[in-house]
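Collaborator request, handled under Task 6.
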Amino acid sequence: MEYFNAFWVGGLVCVLVQILIENTKLMPGRIMVILVVTGTFLGAFGLFPYLKEYAGAGVTVPLLGFGNNLWEGVKKAVDEDGFLGLFKGGFTAAATGTSSALIFSYIASLICQPKMKK
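Structure tokens returned to the collaborator:
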């Protein structure tokens, strides 16, 4: 049942993203941000552990899992370091390469001024 639950929950996430891609003017990068933020909120409200227990890789492999990983890192760093943990928690929780990709892609989006789909 673990594989089946991971398959259908992960597939549902993919279907919802595909619907967003096809029926909205949202760019794929913005949809990815929606997934990361959703994973963060699910972690913040304490729902992600239940989803992870039920669906396993169906929620941890997509960007929902990455958002939860960032949330867990920030929460731990704030408990240990206070206010400064807000800034360093996400970097220590995720791989250095992933954190650098986030920083450089944000800088690139500020420089390049991305446009909406028509």
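The cover message to the collaborator said: "Residues 2-23 form the longest helix (22 residues). The mean pLDDT is 86. Please let us know whether this matches your experimental observations."
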